[in-house]
Amino acid sequence: MAYPNEASLLNFLDNSPCNFLAVASIQRELAENGFTELDLTKSWNIQAGGKYFVKKNDSAIFAFKIGCQPISKTGFKIVSAHSGSPCFRIKPNPIMLNDGVVRLNTEVYGGPILYTWFDRPLSIAGRVIVKGGSILAPETKLIHIKKPLMVIPHLAIHFNRTVNEGNKKKKKKDMLPIIGIVNDTFEKDNFILDLISKELKINKNDILDFDLLLYNCQKAETVGMNGELFMSGRIDDLSMAHAATTALINCCDTTTTQVIAIFDNEETGSGTKQGAASPVFANVLHRISMALGDDQETFYRTIEKSFMISADNAHAAHPNYPEKYDPTNHPTMGGGPVIKINANCKYMTDANSSAIFIGICNKAKVPYQYFVNHSDNAGGSTLGNILTSQIDICGVDVGNPIWAMHPATETGSLFDHECMITTFTCFFNE
What we know:
By secondary structure, the protein is of the alpha/beta class. Helix content is 26%, strand content 27%. It has 11 helices and 20 strands. The strands form 4 sheets. A 9-stranded mixed sheet has the order 1-2-3-13-4-14-18-16-17, sandwiched between helices. A 6-stranded antiparallel sheet has the order 8-7-10-5-6-9, with helices on both faces. Helix 6 (235-250) packs across helix 11. The radius of gyration is 22 Å and the shape is globular. The relative contact order is 0.18.
């Protein structure tokens, strides 16, 4: 079976080793397709037929096409996802020397499956803040070191014979990466700054601070007898960000206003200025409305007519652990998009919003599935219900089924990915 968006997806995953680079990848794709960047510090001049985007903190991005019909009549059509994935962040003053090797002092971001990060080639990506025109306006430079720099080595089994019987990992002791062996050229005090300045070709004295994250250097690739699966780091939730961006670019409807919202920090609760728990997205929608000449009352009516698809990956049924899943609502890999439901409102889905998504899937001729937690498992939450604390919008939580979730490498279905792009495109075109 041919998968038209396979190459685009794999390239996007490889070029997006962290939240900042993911947003930069999306920004580049939007710009190449005629979208204009707006400035959050300036007034917006937008018009029907225009295509625009704005960024927040370099790690969240919001893009929209303005339809020819008033948004007070059609509402907003929104697909949301998030840019970040669990990983390790480098601390300030990170160099640690021990037994002739150099380790980096790191901090865990989000909730990764720790042991999956052992014995893999790792490198560094993120952003570097350098001196700008004024103290209050430093400049940002993105960094993506595209070669393996370090490894987190396992302790040999000979020193821990019970390692395969369960072995709790201590983040501070077990998970520190080794970046090299001490030699005559190693300068402890300037190592990271020297590395950054060499990579970016800048003066290290201009570096003020950085947000540097570790990533798994292994490339995204297809697996399976027929190449029907794909494996990569950060599938959760970059695959949904890719699907949303692709659908927005490809949709042909010019009557309604379509929006994608790629937030950051979902993995830590979304409680940042660029996260779904902040007013950032409500502010963006409000500014669109005002720039089009609507007043506050009209904006409220627009929200009542709007609909959002909150897209975050779902748990595919694992054939080795059937007891972990609900007996009648466990989505299968390759079975199509998943509607996520929770009685305690961990998802924003209700019967009405689920019915709307089902109607979209039916029109798109795409199969759909349900995910409900096993009643003995608490489960997690995602963007949808968090976002509704800021804006009272109707919507549904969905996602594609994947295996694992939060390890260094996850596995998804290319068929499901194509189905989700088709579904999002149908939604935008409806």
